[in-house]
């Protein structure tokens, strides 16, 4: 690898070491990586739009949706949206094709994002609650490690459910309500979705219906149960 990059092995080793983090879950990821390493986001967008343009030329109606993760500041979204819009424009020009519609939205994964949802709604075409991260950031639990103690919590009646499997309505759910209320004051028609395991949880879907969620996204094996739960929630 060092040879291909035309640098010394020592320099490569130092670079790899500099990228290691003490706590990657709260570190250099999501939109932060897109801001410090914009070429990564440009590469991803180029792959999406090259594919979309190819399909459009074959007569298919394509509307890509780009979702920017881990936003905590409106200025992060503004910066990256501008970066992506400009790069997408160059891709259309390169292919000599009339631009077709696309949307740029954001994940709502941090408590702070919930509290500034009205500001984010001024820039985003859609929201999607990243419930795994939002639950982690709200509880201070690690999704990867909760299995080590959640059964003890259940046995001791400290908690009655795993909040990564069923939405915590009184904590995480309240943050979601705040975000939805603030966002829809700015854009009443803003599409707002939910992703994560709770998106396919039959016990959580009626709550999502009640608070105004537009759609849910979940693991493929959960889709049949999610569809049934959505239908039941609509009927009730």
TrEMBL record:
InterPro entries hit by this protein: PEP_util_C, PEP_util_CS, Pyruvate_phosphate_dikinase, Pyrv/PenolPyrv_kinase-like_dom, Pyrv_kinase-like_dom_sf
UniProt xrefs under PANTHER family? PHOSPHOENOLPYRUVATE DIKINASE-RELATED, PYRUVATE, PHOSPHATE DIKINASE 1, CHLOROPLASTIC
Protein name per Swiss-Prot or TrEMBL: Pyruvate, phosphate dikinase
Q: Which GO terms describe its molecular function?
A: pyruvate, phosphate dikinase activity
User: Which organism is this entry from?
Assistant: Streptococcus constellatus subsp. pharyngis SK1060 = CCUG 46377
Domain PEP-utilising enzyme C-terminal intervals: 15-234
Highest taxon listed in the record's lineage: Bacteria
């Amino acid at each position: 690898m060092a040879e291909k990059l035309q640098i010394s092995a020592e320099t490569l080793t130092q670079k790899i070491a500099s990228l290691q983090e003490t706590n990657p879950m709260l570190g250099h990821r999501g939109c932060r990586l897109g801001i410090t390493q914009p070429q990564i986001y440009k590469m991803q967008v180029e792959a999406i739009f090259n594919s979309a343009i190819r399909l459009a030329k074959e007569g298919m109606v394509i509307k890509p949706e780009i979702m920017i993760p881990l936003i905590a500041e409106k200025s992060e979204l503004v910066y990256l949206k501008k970066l992506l819009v400009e790069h997408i424009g160059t891709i259309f020009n390169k292919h000599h094709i009339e631009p077709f519609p696309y949307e740029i939205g954001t994940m709502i994964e941090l408590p702070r994002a919930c509290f500034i949802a009205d500001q984010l709604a001024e820039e985003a075409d859609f929201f999607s609650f990243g419930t795994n991260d939002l639950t982690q950031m709200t509880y201070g639990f690690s999704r990867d490690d909760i299995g080590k103690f959640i059964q003890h919590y259940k046995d001791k009646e400290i908690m009655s459910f795993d909040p990564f499997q069923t939405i915590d309505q009184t904590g995480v759910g309240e943050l979601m309500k705040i975000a939805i209320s603030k966002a829809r004051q700015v854009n009443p028609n803003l599409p707002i979705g939910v992703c994560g395991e709770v998106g396919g949880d039959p016990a959580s879907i009626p709550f999502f219906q009640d608070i105004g969620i537009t759609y849910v996204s979940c693991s493929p094996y959960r889709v049949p149960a999610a569809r049934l739960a959505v239908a039941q929630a609509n009927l009730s």
